[in-house]
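Could you join me in thinking about how sequence relates to backbone shape in a protein? Label the sequence line and the structure token line clearly, so we can match residues to local backbone shapes. Once you have written the record down, we can walk along the chain together.
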Amino acid sequence: MNKQTRREFLRRASQSAVTAGVLSVLPSCKSLGNGTGKKGKRPNVILVITDDQGYGDLGCHGNPVIKTPNLDRLHSQSVRLTDFHVDPTCSPTRSALMTGHYSTRTGVWHTIMGRSLLGKHEVTMADVFSASGYRTGIFGKWHLGDNYPFRPQDRGFDEVLIHGGGGVGQGPDYWGNDYFDDTYLHNGKWKKFSGYCTNVWFDGAMKFIEDNKDKPFFCYLTTNAPHGPYNVAEKYEKMYEGNKDIPNAAFYGMITNIDENMGRLMKKLEAMELEKDTVLIFMTDNGTAAGFRRGVGFNAGMKGTKGSEYDGGHRVPCFIRWPGGGLEGGKDVDRLTAHIDLLPTLIGLCGLKKPKNLVFDGTSLVPLLKNQSVIWPERTLLVHSQRIEYPQKWRKSAVMTEQWRLVNGKELYDIKADPGQGNNIADEKPKVVEKLRDAYEKWWADLSKGFDDYCETIIGSDKENPVRLMSHDWHTPRVPWHQGAVRSGMQVNGFWAVEVARDGRYEVSLRRWPLEVDKPIMAAIAKGKAINVTKARLKIADLDVSKPVSADAHAVNFQVKLKAGKTQLQTWFIDDKGESRGAYYVYVKRL
């Protein structure tokens, strides 16, 4: 999509954007904040987001066991958003955070299945910072697409150090990564690193900060920890072993390691005299994954965990510190806020150029951050979890105001009186239910306009040639998204949504294993059984071709002529019994 087309798309999209009646009554981000610190310099921004750490997985939030002294200190220095909400899972949260739009509007409502790819039309937070002269860097987890045009380097980031897919060790990641001494993508190239993953991300971020200390920078530091698999150095896990009040010692140990790295980062800012001129934000991407299980652990009195429509699934920490920008630390803001608010807020705080005609679903929180007594109108926010190919109305949903939670369109909770959401009073408050259902209906009607669209990976572009496709992004009900599914030879298939960039001749290489492994297609699967593949089949556009497969083949290559345009690509490895599975890895090269 060229720049002119993208601008026109954004103009049309912004005209149709609605936010269930919220935006029309909320303050504009224009002219809020002067965009400078005490020295008159635009502030740097560091946004730290951890993966699967819940509101209760912090000492400062009342957890009696977990050791998080540095995050507790940051809490004491920050403005804290105590009723701050995200999506119940990671990719949706990240898409909303990056764009200021509800995740489903961006094309992201799942973590796999081709539904974790951030729509080409979206302007990202990195785009906005870059357009205002900032250097931009990402360190850790992206999870909004591994191919052009979805990669972070395609979406406004100058410096990129990330793992593949949604987590270290998933299918799009480098084969065999296990959190220690792994190979990660550095500016588009695989590179071997020494040390634990979280340490690597913080080291990369701090080098980026040092390299750009004399100019404004935006650093997106997004750890994969404490997401599973729960791998961490033994000393951290041992801190919590044997405690019956802890459901997962390694999970807590991973958080303590994050905390130590946060301490290193904060000391670095202080030593470089950047502390006062830097907006430092800490948040997480959804409710706890392993800090509360079957009544064991600490969940800050909330109901639900990761993936849940109840508050425990989507209410998370958000600390914002800016000593030189007039934010008085150590104070709570208890108004209803969300991830969609952070981009318009940062535009206001930093004096960034806001893209013309772009309407956010969120709003600037600058008035709340700088003056908690400001008149702030009632707002309605919505979240849902749609971990399926096509969204379903009312599925795992919550309509939220500062007093009410309407869950799945049926259950009503007074969140002030009943924060644990144990007393459904829907029958007692039919008018409240009707009002919140109406807000949801308007929201759904707007979002559903994009449900039939795919986010196509582009093949044949000079930006990425060849392209490595992985079954993580198949459109199919069952997805082999992790390396374990590849090892076991999971018998399933699906298609990739692709766009051929230009007419031409292409080589399409079908593989069971990624290039860095380069084992035969028929290598043994689980329990020592082999896949006796006899035929490979490729279907793309109007082509449907097959080839025999030799016993020692590592790949099956097809050369085909393709025309520019959107289409689907699907593959088959067919065995001697007539059973089949897709090729988990496909490399497409324009010749």
Summary: The chain has three domains: 37-372, 382-450, 457-590. Residues 1-33 have pLDDT under 50 and may be disordered.
